[in-house]
């Protein structure tokens, strides 16, 4: 019998998918679930997959790999799509695709399958990555074709012994991992309506946050966070801690209009406390250690990097080319950044670095300054030269 490797979350959609593939393709299903920090009970997911008659189930703790190979590059690139979205879902998809392809090769499967819809970005991210790693593999996306409504899915589930989740009345579609939580559907599809409070789980409403501010000091080494408040910390623990602390202060709620890859505009709501804090701190430190030219150019590189990742092109060679530039800047991004969290607001209030380009003697307005202000006169004369000339010519043209 042929074998199909399925990306399995344990939810209703992928459970229906599992049974549907067994029946429709007359195939054995090998299910795969990754722990990317979504805080799901993976043993329960495995038990569910096995109860639905999979040939084999893979439960993979991919948190370390997710952080080192996907989240760290995103921090170095200040990865935000359309200046807002920290790419949390987008970063996990190439890792899921990589695992699907690896397992399909190991098991001699002929196809992989996923539960993405035909409207989103995730189908593109998974398929482009799988087919770049393993061109012989077929990729099945049954949800794009089967046209089942929610009610039909539930009916199919009942008929096939699939347990119906208790929270079926929740209107939201959720995707979460260490780097953030995405919430879609329900009232959120009306961009003029404020997201209802029940959409949020990781953050308190800012007005209910503590009345006293809290400070966090983040230590960065070569562009990535390695310590918190004076203590060295492993990256998973560090990100989880910042998620908890910043979430408690109502930080990291994101609500914006996003251009999906396939052209649809959508209203997207996220909770990304740690990503929001860490990227803000990282960007601030870059301003201190990079020259103006490096910083300006890097902002363009960062935007291009985020665009590639968002649009499913993790395997595009340009990403590595951009990362070669980014890496060469990050050797300077060492130091500490102090942020102040208070009722939904996040502010960098201090920074220091052994690579700092800030020179007190140049900047100060005190007597100790070494800067010769008279030099500015000649500088202004030359800096403004082309602008002055073009304005003279413009006025002449008018007379
Ligand atoms: N718009 C986000 C992205 O494309 C999140 C998509 C997945 N979200 C979900 N709730 N299923 O990366």
Could you say which overall geometry the principal axes of the C-alpha atoms support?
A: elongated
Task: Specify the CATH architecture of the largest domain.
Answer: 3-Layer(aba) Sandwich
Level of helix content?
40-55%
The CATH topology of the largest domain turns out to be Rossmann fold
Give the count of structural domains.
3
Mean pLDDT: 97
* The CATH homologous superfamily of the largest domain: HUPs
Please count the helical segments. 14
Bound small molecules, deduplicated: arginine
Q: Which oligomeric form is depicted?
A: single chain
Class of secondary structure makeup: alpha/beta
H/E element order = EHEHEHHEHEHHEEEEEHEEHHHEEHHH
Arrangement of strands in the largest sheet: 3-2-1-4-5
Largest sheet: 5 strands, parallel
Query: In percent terms, what proportion of residues is strand?
Result: 15-25%
**What would you report as the Rg, rounded to the nearest angstrom?**
25 Å
């Amino acid at each position: 019998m042929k074998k199909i490797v399925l990306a399995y979350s344990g939810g209703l959609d992928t459970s229906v998918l599992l049974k549907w593939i067994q029946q429709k393709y007359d195939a054995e299903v090998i299910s795969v679930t990754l722990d990317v920090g979504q805080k799901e009970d993976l043993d329960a997911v495995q038990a569910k997959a096995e109860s639905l008659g999979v040939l084999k189930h893979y439960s993979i703790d991919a948190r370390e790999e997710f952080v080192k190979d996907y989240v760290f590059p995103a921090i170095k690139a200040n990865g935000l799509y359309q200046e807002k979205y920290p790419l949390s879902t987008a970063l996990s998809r190439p890792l899921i695709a990589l695992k699907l392809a690896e397992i399909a090769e190991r098991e001699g499967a002929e196809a992989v399958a996923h539960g993405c819809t035909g409207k989103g970005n995730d189908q593109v991210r998974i398929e482009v990555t799988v087919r770049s790693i393993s061109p012989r593999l077929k990729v099945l996306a049954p949800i794009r074709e089967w046209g089942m409504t929610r009610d039909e899915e539930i009916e199919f589930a009942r008929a096939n012994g699939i347990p119906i989740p208790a929270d079926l009345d929740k209107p939201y579609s959720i995707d979460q991992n260490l780097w953030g939580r995405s919430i879609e559907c329900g009232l959120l599809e009306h961009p003029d309506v404020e997201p209802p409070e029940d959409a949020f789980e990781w953050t308190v409403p800012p007005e209910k946050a503590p009345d006293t501010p809290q400070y966090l000091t983040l230590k960065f080494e070569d562009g990535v966070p390695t310590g918190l408040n004076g203590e060295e910390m492993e990256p998973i623990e560090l990100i989880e801690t910042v998620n908890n602390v910043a979430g408690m202060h109502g930080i990291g709620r994101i609500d914006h209009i996003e251009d999906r890859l396939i052209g649809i505009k959508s209203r997207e709501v996220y909770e990304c406390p740690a990503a929001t804090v860490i990227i803000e701190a990282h960007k601030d430190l870059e301003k201190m250690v990079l020259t103006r030219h490096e910083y300006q150019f890097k902002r363009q590189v960062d935007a291009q990097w985020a665009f590639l990742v968002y649009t499913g092109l993790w395997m595009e060679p340009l990403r590595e080319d951009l990362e070669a530039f980014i890496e060469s800047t990050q050797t300077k991004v060492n130091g500490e950044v102090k942020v102040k969290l208070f009722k939904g607001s996040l502010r960098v209030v201090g920074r220091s670095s052994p690579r700092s380009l800030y020179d007190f003697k140049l900047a100060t307005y005190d007597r100790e300054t070494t800067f010769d202000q008279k030099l500015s006169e000649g500088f202004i004369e030359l800096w403004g030269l082309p602008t002055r000339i073009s304005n003279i010519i413009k006025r002449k043209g008018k007379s």
